[in-house]
Amino acid sequence: MKANEKEAFQNGSDPKKEQLQKFTADAQGEFINTNQGVKINDNQNSLKAGERGPSLLEDFILREKITHFDHERIPERIVHARGSAAHGVFELYEPMGEFTKAKFLNDTSVKTPVFVRFSTVQGAKGSTDMARDVRGFAVKFYTPEGNYDLVGNNMPIFFIQDAMKFPDLVHAVKPHPHNEIPQAASAHDTFWDFVSLMPETMNNVFWTMSDRGITRSLRTMEGFGIHTFRFINEEGKSHFVKFHWKPMQGVISLAWDECQRIAGKDTDFHRRDLWEAIDCGQFPEWEFGVQIILEEDEHKYPFDLLDPTKFIPEEMVPVRIIGKMTLNRNPDNFHAETEQAAFHPGHLVPGIDFTNDPLLQGRLFSYTDTQLSRLGGPNFHELPINKSVNEVYNNQRGGMHRMQINKGQVSYHPNSLGGGCPHQAMMREGGFTSYEERIDASKIRKRSQSFFDHFSQPALFYHSLSSHEQRHLQNAFAFELGKVTVVAIRQRVVSMLLEIDEDLANIVGDKLGLKPAKLQQPITGSIPADGNLEDHHSFKAELPIDKAPSVSQESRKPDNIKFRKIAMLVTDGVSDEAFTKFKAELTEMDAVVKIIAPKHGYVKTASGDEYPVCESLMTTASVIFDAVYVADGSGVDELLKEPDALHFVAEAFKHCKPIGSSGDGKKLLEKAIPGQLKTEGVLTNANAKNLAEALKEHRFWAREENPTVPA
Ligand code: HDE
């Protein structure tokens, strides 16, 4: 981003606005006309029998306009309805030919275009970004061999093991069917009822109750393909592979209380953050990693590689970083791109293949099926956002909204009339062939015994968290279960926690006034239809490691402050140095400093320079920012009289954020957070450098241990 653009953004103006206006004018053309191309003379009044008379049916202009409007909406996604997306590129660091023949994973000189859509799972399209929830992380690679979709989440495991349970899971987590309450929240009876009867959900529930469920930004979350896939090389050899995205912005989260408040202040918090970061040139980046497992090692692990409720700790199989994705362009049109994007785990290219993970297998049916009703027919691959970069030649014809005009009389194969074209591609010509896995089995509705360990991984996860992460998880369980109205459900979950960690069960139980009790095995949801309990007892596998530090966000802190936001509280009379130097230096480090004042307009520095105010204390709040800085100056006394300014600082303190002041700015801190000026993360001699270091630390969670400042 150019310096003047950065500056303009910092000052609250949109550097792209002029460009957007010009673009809009070009795109719109000079005259308004109908969909049939007829110029419209009056776009204000319908055709009537007399000025005060009834409207006439013959008004084809009115009818066309209203009809189109009436059909503007398409059904939202049944899950992952709330999403935000961006375009970008994927660049490979090293050729992966030893493992896969996929072209985009072999040529380091190619920049593969991608389209990435992030989403929450439970909420409706217009729901808050701030829900405690899993986030979708779906990437469409437009490769020369066709589209490859990696449709993952921000957690490495899923709630259930078999596609058969997906509609049940989703019905349970969605708002209650009789009153459609609550929106975008899992803290309700039906979700926890389901969880309490389905122990296999526990691993994903633990990740969701951890800070991973309340990310600071879409830019600061990891992505995972979850299922085990296969890489296939030129020789046809297969390796198992798990996919990872590692954000170069670090992995950081919000405080739960903060999320609930942001939901009111800026319900588009994540969407806005992604949009603005890209818009002002602070392109988010993720490194792409793979965990590769030899076929002969398939049964080496204490969990089944086909079980999507298990992850492979990086301490057991390291993640090999092989490339980088950069998101560098916002969509031009939300509906045409973000809303109409159709991802599908079955969109594969040669060199990548499925495994028999029973959840993945079910997904392979669902994703096309759902687009048929959402996008209105079988031709959604022709929508610009879904189109592959190579031309499509096949004999499929017709269907709703067909855009391609296929010429000629031949739409079948084999044919002689069309010269045999399009013809099949041999393997060496890039034709996709499925991995020839040998299957010798009975047709059976049963789950493998190797899927019945539900508790060892949530225990590993919990034990690998830092003390503040564990505290957040305990509180999240207590919050969510506290919203459950049926005590028996709360009791079942607390008792299930006993299988994972006794202290955790007792802490959560205590907050709910319950005592965990030993569960009878198996838990109801696992009782098989044949009534034979013998092979269905769940067990807790022995893992070769006690801790996996890689799952703790402590191991993934940012080393930069790219697009992190600082609120600078100022009034007239602010010291020039404290204001401009601080702002310029942090801007140089790619952070965003916003000028916040009691009212809108301009602030005048001590030397008389004027700067536009970005937001007033009325229109924003400290929850929108990563840090607060109170600049030195004669105007600080004004701020002391502003209850909103005091609340701004106190609330930032409560949410464990860095707080800085220079010179007299300290007075506001003394009044807002009395007795806390020596607390970690409170910098009364703040400068750009020490504030940047505090921002990298992100939060000073130790403050939660002894809460003192009400906010
Ligand atoms: Fe999805 N999922 N899913 N899912 N999923 C959809 O497809 C489904 C699962 C995921 O930004 C739907 O186009 C079934 C796992 C993402 O457009 C639907 C099962 C993972 C997105 C669907 C799963 C995901 C979806 C809804 C179990 C992580 C959003 C609209 C068998 C690896 C993609 C749509 C976007 C969307 C079905 C399980 C991730 C209904 C049946 C596991 C990121 O087809």
Which secondary-structure class do the elements indicate? alpha/beta
Radius of gyration: 28 Å
Question: Which ligands, by name, code or SMILES, are bound?
Answer: CIS-heme D hydroxychlorin gamma-spirolactone 17R, 18S
Total helical segments:
19
Most strands sheet: 10 strands, antiparallel
Task: Write up what this structure looks like.
This protein starts with a helix and ends in a 14-residue tail after the last helix. The protein has helices spanning 3-10, 17-28, 60-70, 166-173, 189-197, 202-209, 256-265, 269-279, 334-339, 358-374, 456-464, 467-482, 487-498, 502-512, 576-588, 636-640, 643-654, 666-672, 688-697; strands at 83-92, 111-120, 135-143, 146-153, 223-224, 229-232, 238-247, 285-294, 320-329, 352-353, 565-569, 592-597, 602-604, 610-612, 615-616, 627-630, 659-661, 682-683. Strand 3 (135-143) and strand 4 form a beta hairpin. The chain contains 19 helices and 18 strands. Strands 1, 2, 3, 4, 5, 6, 7, 8, 9 and 10 form a ten-stranded antiparallel beta sheet that branches. Strands 15-12-11-16-17-18 form a six-stranded parallel beta sheet, with helices on both faces. With 711 residues, the protein is an alpha/beta fold. Helix 4 (166-173) packs antiparallel against helix 5 and helix 6 (202-209) runs parallel beside helix 11.
In short:
By secondary structure, this protein is α/β, with parallel strands linked by helices. The chain has helices spanning 3-10, 17-28, 60-70, 166-173, 189-197, 202-209, 256-265, 269-279, 334-339, 358-374, 456-464, 467-482, 487-498, 502-512, 576-588, 636-640, 643-654, 666-672, 688-697; strands spanning 83-92, 111-120, 135-143, 146-153, 223-224, 229-232, 238-247, 285-294, 320-329, 352-353, 565-569, 592-597, 602-604, 610-612, 615-616, 627-630, 659-661, 682-683. Helices cover 27% and strands 14% of the residues.
